[in-house]
Amino acid sequence: MSTEPRQLHLNAFLMTPGHHDAAWRHPDSQPHRATDVTYFQQLAQTAERGKLDSIFFADGLAVWGRLRSNVSGGLEPLTLLAAIAAVTSRVGLIATASTTFNEPFHLARKFASLDHISNGRAGWNIVTSGSVTEANNFNLEEHLDHAVRYQRATEFLEVATGLWDSWADDAVLLDKESGVYADPDRVREIQHAGPFFQVRGPLNVQRSPQGWPLLVQAGSSEDGREFAARHAEAVFTAQQTLEDAVAFAKDVRARAAAHGRDGLPLILPGICPIIGATEAEARALEDELTELQVIDYGLAQLSNMLNVDLSGYPLDQPPPEHLLPTEQEVNGNKSRFTLVSDLARREGLTIRQIIARLGGGRGHRVVAGAPEQIADAIESWFRAGAADGFNIMPPILPTGLDAFVDHVVPELQRRGLFRTEYTGTTLRDHYGLPRPDARSTESESLLASSSL
Amino acid sequence: MSTEPRQLHLNAFLMTPGHHDAAWRHPDSQPHRATDVTYFQQLAQTAERGKLDSIFFADGLAVWGRLRSNVSGGLEPLTLLAAIAAVTSRVGLIATASTTFNEPFHLARKFASLDHISNGRAGWNIVTSGSVTEANNFNLEEHLDHAVRYQRATEFLEVATGLWDSWADDAVLLDKESGVYADPDRVREIQHAGPFFQVRGPLNVQRSPQGWPLLVQAGSSEDGREFAARHAEAVFTAQQTLEDAVAFAKDVRARAAAHGRDGLPLILPGICPIIGATEAEARALEDELTELQVIDYGLAQLSNMLNVDLSGYPLDQPPPEHLLPTEQEVNGNKSRFTLVSDLARREGLTIRQIIARLGGGRGHRVVAGAPEQIADAIESWFRAGAADGFNIMPPILPTGLDAFVDHVVPELQRRGLFRTEYTGTTLRDHYGLPRPDARSTESESLLASSSL
Question: Which of B334, B330, B336 is nearest to B308 (CA)?
């Protein structure tokens, strides 16, 4: 009776106009604030008002070709989150950053700095990047092969965690009397020499409140799942059905257990909640957004997901079978490809229907309904073992986040599934994850399964 | 009679305990706040209270070996400045970043983001980095040759400015009705292909309030002066005597004029003002700080500047002539080397005396006195053509900045030399510099003299 029920974790996935691809055309959205820091600060404060675990920004290192029909050209996530840290005090701050186009010293340093600035609220969504457009901005004509990117990511993480552990917690002595600031024996070089990186260290930032930022990952391919199982503490994933979501969670957990990481990583499927006072109101909003979709944009996005050009094919027929490549042929975002080809093959949807279906959450689960129905959709997956929490992707911002915080969160709190106050101060506290000890047995073991 | 007198520009150079190398041992300093964002936010607010043009952070990409005897392991400047931007509204925000160990796409993006976040207050102090310790953190056993670093810096700047200009000011149309967000014809690829970088572009950040961050530079070697003359809008420099300072300013201005850049760059020598209510009080503070110096630290720093190991030589004799290499032999910070060897050769100072002399400003001018005397020191150089303003380097923080803002600034204002209110909102406004037009004749001409 007195046992605390298992608690949900909720992350707010923020992007300028909201997650529906037509959001920017809806009167409730604020696409003119794409580069306005106060817009994002206000969204973060809303998430904090709702006691959410964290906010999160996706990222890419190029303008995607279709800037004609959607918001682009916003702010770099780490820089933005530092400005958000200054006006919030509890909500976690998760930035996406690429291991393919960064150097580990820079990134380790920036996350350590953000962790200090936010008093322990930094998280890193580790991505390997998947597009030739990004490679073209970094001296490459082709992007690295999928498997090579994950090898690089693994070594990158080994270097970064080594750097975060290079200052002991008690390295700074600050003895004004004797003139000793730090103990050189408690600050160590990492002397890393691997196939991708040679980094001497130590980091030039003192050990941060969390030790390491929370490590998040979102790849769902074979390589991605293995990486998550070995290294991630939380996983963002796109799942359309409860069955698939449960299977994914079981698979990743079993892989992690095989590496001695029981209970990790936390699984956070995306959900795009279209909220109305009634279900009818929510459906009307969903239809209104579908009406506002720019078909050329949806077609281009779908073509991008499938790695084929769909323009010229009849919109009201399914995409021809021969256009759907096998997963082996895709050197990009494998998990998103699988979702799309399932919609075509399993449900037999037409191109137009697929575009409408993907409009809300780009492959993530979309649920339209009254607040209780959204809470039901969350609770059912949570109780069925499909999720430890959710990546909340409001279709329109800021209104969709306001609705979630003001109406869905209280319902989840009434059901005893979600905190009514923060009980800790760091992002790791919110997710119930331990602080890694510098060079302790525990932190070593987190990397012990590295393939390098 | 009605002509506005020429106005000084003042930049506050911030570092944790203050600029005197013994500052951290003085009771007024706060070395325990090296990673405390509120410490730096408060310093920035003090600078803003004093109507200063800007604040500035130096940077390096490694822990220098002597962490035993001085503060190290602080925060990364760009991340820190974003958090400072959130709690200030006028003061400019200048971050140091290296062209040798960064990719132009990342850095262009971060400065554009900071410029948006600060509503047009970003500045970039362009450095080429000079130590093998830094190279060792970026996959290199040796650092790049001095001349190669400047070639890379020149191409880096060409790419970065191209990226900042890749979105026209009017690229975003935001037509909700017709479904057109941006005009693809007003966002262009830069298609850069050079010896160091291949970058397609466009940048994934919309054009920022200032267009480009203010471009600052601090190298005083032959290569450094040429780079400043061609590209910098402001120059930080270390000068010990009025004669040297005037010569330096004339030289850089003449070089710039030869490239068609009349009146640029602004010259901002460093000054470490040791302020007391009376001159005697200031001298007492200076002596107190010299007393607190850790001689091993000073010796290591001096050895580093000269690129020779001075340990084992008698402290009360000048460094032996044969230990002073020629400038050609130094592949590091050439300007600082020249200053030190002048102290030895020109003034015949002993090793101990040089360490004491360098303790206050690491080669920058140190002036101890009452507020009026500090103002005299500033005014005399300003009127003699040695400076357009100064890089203020308080010996101890926060007290040294408080003293400057509360006592020296009002004196400069009484003399009609410094603003009493901000008249513009951007960093370029404060320095009286124009906003570059995207791809206009003017912005082209700023790069026209590039050697690439």
Answer: B330
Q: What is the pLDDT of residues B161-219, one digit of tens each?
A: 999 999 999 999 999 999 999 999 999 999 999 999 999 999 999 999 999 999 999 97
Q: Inter-chain contact A83–B85, Cβ cutoff 8 Å? A: yes
Indicate the residue of A73, A75, A87 with minimum beta-carbon distance to B167: A73
For A296-328, how does the pLDDT look when each residue is reduced to its tens digit (9 = 90+)? 889 988 888 777 889 889 999 988 888 776 666
CA-to-CA distance for A452 and A447, rounded, in angstroms?
Answer: 10
User: Domains in chain A and their CATH numbers?
Assistant: 9-276+363-447 (3.20.20.30)
Gap from B110 CA to chain A (nearest CA, Å): 6
Query: Is A167 part of the contact surface with chain B (CB cutoff 8 Å)?
Result: yes
* A268: three-class secondary structure by DSSP: strand
- Contacts by B26-32, CB closer than 8 A, 24 or more apart: B26/B288, B26/B289, B26/B292, B26/B396, B27/A176, B28/B396, B28/B399, B29/B396, B29/B397, B29/B399, B30/B397, B30/B398, B31/A174, B31/A176, B31/A181, B31/B71, B32/A174
Give the span between the Cα atoms of B124 and B98, in whole angstroms: 10
Compare CB distances from A79 to B75, B113, B167 and report the shortest one's residue. Answer: B113
With an 8 Å Cβ cutoff, are A138 and B199 in contact? yes
DSSP-derived letter for residue A405 is: I
B32–A174: do the CB atoms touch at under 8 Å? yes
Which one-letter DSSP state was computed for residue A327? G
How large is the ipTM?
Answer: 0.94
In sequence order, the β-bridge partners of residue A390 are A10
